[in-house]
């Protein structure tokens, strides 16, 4: 296979980065993936099962690692990028350890960070032992061990709190993290599957079931699994003497305040940008959204292009997305990158692939 | 004599731990669609009784599920069983059977 001499650097080896690398590799481009962790896969490595069909995250990871049959990318792990600087029509990518790479075009796929639920002090994360996040629960589910609270007991009543760090001006994030609603429904069902006698309650402001089969899963949670949904944002959680948790909310549909006790509370923390994404974005002169994610050039027609020519963005570094949407977004970005490379190729960097109109 | 309200007021807070769920359990057992509700309120919007009185089938169902059943017998007597609520329900809840089971539950559970 003829390999194009033009060089593409992808920053971030999560789902978006790997999917884009396999598309660009198959199209004949020389690709380098820079991953800051010791292993590629991003947060899929933490996740146990994916909504809405409870597919094992391993299946998506396998798909991603099988995409490199033709023209595999060079993958560097423990490679933390600190800046991307335009240089002679190309881009210079600087790493924390002093290494540097030259690229004709750069794709940023640095993903998201989980909102730090400790900031919502009224919910007691890291203060009360039985308040955990959706990430903590997912790690526990992945072990396959029975669900237990800190004292080693089986929880009888469990609450999920939606919109923790999302749609909340006090936490600095006015945007919706989109995927937490369906994650709350998915994890509620997973608890009922393991603990059929447990009572599960989801406290929500709105339930945004935007994806294919999301609404169906919500109906299934109510009909088949008996999960109860209470509309109202939880105001505070306090710990009882026996380490159970007392929760206060307004049951807005009855217009009455409600007080309930729980053995375990799961906070559905939202998505925030990775701090290093902001660093990289600033070094490359990129623009940001109001939520401090990387901004696309146009919200309809060029979401993956940025205001710096040659730098592209995909996945959750630009807005909260599901795994499926992230993969679609990565593929979309590669089409735009290939077009850009073809339009900007210079005589000394002519592609080796013969095109009909050459 | 008129009750002047000098007694201690009962709080408005729903005290989930101490409430009575016998009616909710009875209805759910006999008409499982009782718990499919998403609180849209289309039943109340179309309800003939709601147009003339403060009867509110959406709220009634919710309060039963929260174990708040004081005055339930008087409330449910306002329903005329016309079944229009069942025609508009987007979740396909058998609302008429829910109402019938509320009445049966009141007789069976001797809650009130």
Structural account:
The complex is a heterodimer of chains A (358) and B (112). Chain A has seven helices and 20 strands. Chain A has 358 residues and is α/β, with parallel strands linked by helices. Chain A folds into two domains: 7-111 and 274-349, FAD/NAD(P)-binding domain, CATH 3.50.50; 117-271, FAD/NAD(P)-binding domain (3-Layer(bba) Sandwich). Chain A starts with 6 loop residues before the first strand and ends in a 15-residue tail after the last helix. Chain B has 112 residues and is mainly α. Chain B has one domain: Fumarate Reductase Iron-sulfur Protein, Chain B, domain 2. Chain B has helices spanning 22-30, 42-46, 48-52, 57-65, 72-76, 84-88, 95-109, and one strand spanning 14-15. In chain B, α1 (22-30) packs across α7. The two termini of chain B are 24 Å apart. The mean pLDDT of chain B is 91. β17 (256-262) of chain A pairs parallel with β1 of chain B.
Write the layout of secondary structure elements.
The complex is a heterodimer of chains A (358) and B (112).
Chain A: E1 7-11, H1 15-26, E2 30-34, E3 49-50, E4 55-56, H2 57-65, E5 74-76, E6 81-87, E7 90-95, E8 100-103, E9 105-108, E10 112-114, E11 131-133, H3 134-143, E12 157-164, H4 180-194, E13 199-204, H5 214-223, E14 228-231, E15 236-239, E16 245-251, E17 256-262, E18 264-269, E19 271-273, H6 275-283, E20 311-313, H7 323-343
Helix pairs in contact in A: 1-2, 1-7, 3-4, 4-5
Chain B: E1 14-15, H1 22-30, H2 42-46, H3 48-52, H4 57-65, H5 72-76, H6 84-88, H7 95-109
Structure at a glance:
The complex is a heterodimer of chains A (358) and B (112). Chain A has 358 residues and is α/β, with parallel strands linked by helices.
Descriptive labels:
heterodimer; A: 358 residues; alpha/beta; FAD/NAD(P)-binding domain; 7 helices; elongated; B: 112 residues; mainly alpha; Fumarate Reductase Iron-sulfur Protein, Chain B, domain 2; 47% helix; 2% strand
């Amino acid at each position: 296979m003829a390999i194009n001499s033009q060089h593409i650097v992808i920053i971030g080896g999560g789902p978006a980065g790997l999917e884009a690398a396999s598309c660009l590799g198959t199209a004949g481009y020389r690709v380098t993936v820079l991953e800051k962790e010791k292993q590629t896969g991003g947060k899929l490595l933490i996740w146990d099962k994916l909504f809405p069909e409870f597919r094992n995250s391993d299946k998506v990871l396998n798909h991603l690692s099988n995409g490199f049959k033709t023209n595999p990318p060079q993958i560097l792990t423990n490679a933390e990028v600190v800046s991307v600087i335009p240089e002679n029509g190309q881009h210079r990518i600087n790493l924390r350890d002093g290494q540097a790479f030259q690229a004709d075009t750069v794709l940023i796929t640095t993903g998201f960070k989980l909102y730090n639920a400790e900031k919502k002090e009224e919910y007691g994360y890291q203060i009360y032992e039985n308040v955990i996040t959706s990430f903590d629960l997912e790690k526990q589910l992945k072990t396959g061990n029975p669900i237990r609270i800190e004292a080693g007991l089986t929880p009888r009543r469990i609450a999920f709190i939606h919109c923790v760090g999302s749609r909340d001006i006090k936490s600095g994030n006015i945007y919706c993290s989109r995927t937490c609603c369906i994650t709350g429904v998915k994890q509620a069902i997973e608890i009922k599957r393991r603990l059929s006698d447990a009572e599960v309650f989801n406290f929500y402001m709105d339930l945004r079931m935007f994806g294919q089969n999301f609404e169906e899963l919500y109906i299934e949670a109510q009909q088949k699994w008996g999960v109860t949904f209470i509309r109202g944002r939880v105001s505070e959680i306090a710990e009882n003497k026996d380490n159970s948790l007392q929760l206060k909310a307004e049951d807005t549909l009855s217009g009455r305040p409600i007080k309930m006790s729980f053995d375990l509370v799961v906070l559905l923390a939202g998505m925030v940008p990775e701090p290093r994404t902001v660093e990289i974005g600033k070094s490359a002169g990129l623009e940001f959204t109001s939520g401090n994610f990387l901004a696309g050039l146009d919200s309809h027609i060029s979401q993956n292009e940025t205001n710096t020519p040659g730098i592209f963005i995909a996945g959750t570094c630009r807005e909260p997305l599901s795994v499926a949407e992230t993969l679609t977004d990565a593929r979309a970005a590669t089409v735009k990158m290939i077009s850009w490379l073809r339009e900007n190729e210079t005589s000394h960097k002519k592609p080796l692939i013969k095109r009909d109109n050459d | 004599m008129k009750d002047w309200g000098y007694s201690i007021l009962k709080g408005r807070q729903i005290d989930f731990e101490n409430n009575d769920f016998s009616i909710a359990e009875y209805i759910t057992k006999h008409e499982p669609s009782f718990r499919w509700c998403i609180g849209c309120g289309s039943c109340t919007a179309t309800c003939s009784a709601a147009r003339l009185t403060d009867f509110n089938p959406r709220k009634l169902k919710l309060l039963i599920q929260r174990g708040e059943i004081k005055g339930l017998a008087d409330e449910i007597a306002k329903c005329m069983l016309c079944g229009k609520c069942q025609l508009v329900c987007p979740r396909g809840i058998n609302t008429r059977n829910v109402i019938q089971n509320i009445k049966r539950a009141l007789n069976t559970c001797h809650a009130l």
